[in-house]
Amino acid sequence: MKLIFEKSVPGRACTLLPDCDVPMAAIPETFVRKAPPHLPELSETDISRHYTELAKCVHGVNDGFYPLGSCTMKYNPALNEEMAGLAGFTGVHPLQPEHTVQGSLEVLAKAEEILCKVTGMDTMTFQPAAGAHGELTGLLLIKAYHRARGDAQRTKIIVPDSAHGTNPASASMTGFTVVNIPSGADGCVDLEKLRAAVGPDTAGLMLTNPNTLGLFDKNILEITRIVHEAGGLNYYDGANLNAVMGVARPGDMGFDVVHLNLHKTFSTPHGGGGPGSGAVGAKSLLAPFLPNRHVKCQGDFYAFEDAPQTIGSVKAFYGNFLVVVRALCYMLVLGEDGMRDASQMAVLNANYLKKLLEPHCEVANEGICMHEFVLTLEKLKKETGVSAMDVAKSMLDYGMHPPTMYFPLIVHEALMLEPTETESKETLDWAAGVIAEILEKAHTEPEALHNAPVTTPVGRPDEVAAARNPKLRAVFDA
Amino acid sequence: MGSYVPSTAEQRQEMLRTVGVSSLEDLYTDVPASIRMPDLQLENGQSELEVSAAIQKMAEKNHLFGSVFRGAGAYNHYIPAIVRRVTSKEEFLTAYTPYQAEISQGILQSIFEYQTMICELTGMDASNASVYDGACAAAEAAAMCRDRKRSRVLISAATHPMVIQTILTYCEGADAEAVLVPAKDGATDLESLRELLCNTDACFYMQQPNFNGLIEDAEALGELVHAAGAKFIMGVNPIAAAVLKTPRECGADIAVGEGQPLGMPLSFGGPYLGFMACTKELFRKLPGRIVGETADAAGRRCYVLTLQAREQHIRREKASSNICSNEALCAMTASVYMAAMGPAGMQKTAALCYSKAHYLAEQICALPGFSLTYAADFFHEFVTKTPVPAEALLTVLEENDILGGLPVENGILWCTTEKNTKEQIDQLVALLKEAASV
Q1: CB B124 within 8 A of CB A33
Q2: A165 — phi, psi (to 5°)?
Q3: Which of A61, A274, A328, B148 would you call most buried, defined as having the most Cβ atoms within 10 angstroms of its Cβ?
Q4: What span, in angstroms and rounded, lies between the C-alpha atoms of A466 and A458?
């Protein structure tokens, strides 16, 4: 495909702006750049066709099955898009007087109220723009809490080795030392290791539950108690909340602070990598430290308020507001019964697909899983030379997005599947058939799998060359 | 109950049988009974029609002003129709981060094109695929510069207050010191910067045009910063950047900014776009996703996420940043905007903003009691003193469906864009005249 710059024709343009209706003022030469930016010169037809061509080379949830583990690629309802596009939301300036933005403030307040009930938290901020941003925010709350109590020696955050990479990275960014503890083979916390790790320097524990192997940690109440008794706080990574909405609340599990990924659990689209929303909920002990500009209801008037000992801002303004509008639509459609049903069906779909696959390959853990499960293709690789990567790439030829590959790190040749509740039994039956066929092929035609995919616009890119000789932008002849 | 679950009652039974459990509740035996199935005390779900009506009612409680003269970090620019048409394509909207390059070339190529455009706008060598917003971009840029020897961050006090807050919050989290460089006459005070700079400073951050709308002498600031061995970070407005000296021409090591003016609606503050670009000496320190060009086995040009050894999923606690999701669709929005505008359209937008702001300033300052608070030249924002309290003036404007400038310490911070017509400007000035003379 040509780059957009390669379609540019000097002198071509769209007619978008009127002529100046006030006297033109010239910007003094001393401030002016030497040459205009080299941007493409195109007609609207060119632009439309360029992006239509690009769109044909993208697989979204709306194109087909997308069981990308840990990412909760559920269907993004059309209503959400329509509501987020309302002029009443898109047209308001963030610094308008409060009485002129009561609708926006109501959205934030209403979403907070519902999400607090779903998570068992007392308060919530929408300022963080993504999950990792929520982690950063939550850890800053934990840090501020200990400091305010004169407990500054609490400098360590405990993270199981099955955790998402963002957990340790966020802990480092917030000045904590990361204490990695090994998990059991099922990804669950090893209670003895945890007991040995906690102490007077423990600031907190970061945990994903269900964990990254798709199992609900049975010992969750004991885990959070151990951390609390050592004086630490418990942080809930909400990446896997889709398994337990209306079934179990992080607040009841003993967590003090949670982040949610509204772009996973609450159906807002991922947009090819964002924007998301990493709303952070907290128990009341952390409320004094919330990021500033939190919405409060005063009688029937909504207003912004800064927490007394706020950590400050993690972003300008109030977060990715239009993402919150979408999530609120979703929560209102589902309600309590619908949320519980969505989670239960996410778990049933995962177990059903797992059951269909069990005769064909090894699953990392036996028994009932939550909303996702992990295949381990170590044996297949030994027997046939076909790797998890080869199997994943082969799925592309069947029009299926591959599962998450090589994660969690504690499972070898891992493929992590999360079908979500919005997939039908027919789709799951089809997907199981495809995977079974690929695994069969691994024994009969391994070479074909090494070479997959063959039906996509391009084959496997040379990633090593990309990193060794980075070409990060188009270069133009002078 | 509303639902997006396709499974019928019969299918559910069949699937439960296959799994070997008798009910959905039986899937949750690992959840301790004491916390299982709580009563959330939420309402049950509603139909699409009901929710649509409820949400529209909320949207209607917001007031959309007929004309907007407020900026201060969020700018009311014209958005070409093609921008929304392209970015609402479901393929782009509903895809995840392009991990699977073979079925993500459309997104990967669009990011590569975005990176190129940001480099062109800033004069830099490399750009990442975006961060959360301009404030976060500034905070991440400061983090790129810090090391053991040089950890202090200097920030111009003439920066947007929310950007300052964000940098301070990130620095405090990382236990790094951050200091404000005072402003004088509305712009960064060169002498104060000279006095403050020392050999433990990591970087200096400034905003161009600054929070007061003034065009700073960025080159002079940059020279001082480099002489002290620190890195120079410029936060730039992308519309102004189409005409003003590029950060590269001003000597910047890193250029960042709020990309909202590039086709994103005001949207009550988000989603917006943080762009980040830097020189080739620093690109391995950039946070977040970066797309690079490569080829497949058949030699076909293609694009991949690259330099991932910097990132959290590989480096974990040693990563350059924790960022995972970014603002990809906003980056695409900016690309489509810049493609539609082209170089001429970008420069025309900038020229209209500049001309209208100068016309408005001239008209306001011709009124008795009004004057420019600061003497330096400005781009599309400026501060005026007012003969009566700002709030009184803004109330009159509001009654006439005008969102006036933002009340600030030394007056009102006004903003114009290409969307403000002469008629709107003249009406604004007439109302100010009347309100101030009462």
Answers
A1: no
A2: -60, -25
A3: A274
A4: 15
Q: Considering only CA atoms, which of A247, A37, A340 is closest in space to residue B239?
A: A37
B323/A62 Cβ within 8 A: no
The DSSP annotation for A367-420 comes to: S--SS-EEEE-HHHHHHH---HHHHHHHHHTTT----EES-STTSTTEEEE---
Contact B169 A129 (CB under 8 A): no
For residues B353 and B346, the answer to whether their CB atoms sit within 8 Å is no
Q: Looking at the whole model, is its pTM more than 0.95?
A: yes
With a CB-CB cutoff of 8 Å, which residues 332-391 of chain A face chain B? 332-342, 344-345, 347-349, 351-352, 355-356, 368
What domains lie within chain B, and their CATH numbers?
67-77+342-437 (3.90.1150.10), 81-336 (3.40.640.10)
Chain B contact for A269 (CB, 8 A cutoff):
yes
CA distance B418 to B345: 11
**Residue B70 CB neighbours (<10 A):** 26
Q: Which of A:284-313 have CB within 8 Å of B? A: 291-292, 311-313
* pLDDT score of A12 more than 90: yes
CB of B155 within 8 A of CB of B331?
no
Is residue B323 a contact partner of residue B312, using CB atoms and an 8 Å limit?
yes
Helix runs in B123-232, H state only: 134-145, 161-173, 190-196, 218-227
Tell me the two tokens of residue B228.
């002290």
Are the C-beta atoms of B11 and A425 separated by less than 8 Å? yes
**What is the tens place of the pLDDT at every residue in A211-239?**
999 999 999 999 999 999 999 999 999 99
CA distances from residue B93 to A277, B264, B308 in whole angstroms, order as listed: 15, 15, 24
Walk me through the domains of chain A, giving residue ranges and CATH numbers.
4-55 (no CATH), 79-334 (3.40.640.10), 338-464 (3.90.1150.10)
Residue (of A68, A64, A69) closest to A369 by Cα position:
A69
Rounded to the nearest 5 degrees, what angle is found at the Cα of B104, between the Cα atoms of A38 and A321?
75
* pLDDT tens digits, A126-161: 999 999 999 999 999 999 999 999 999 999 999 999
Whole-number Cα distances in Å, A199 to A195, A231, B1: 8, 8, 47
Q: How many residues does chain A have?
A: 478
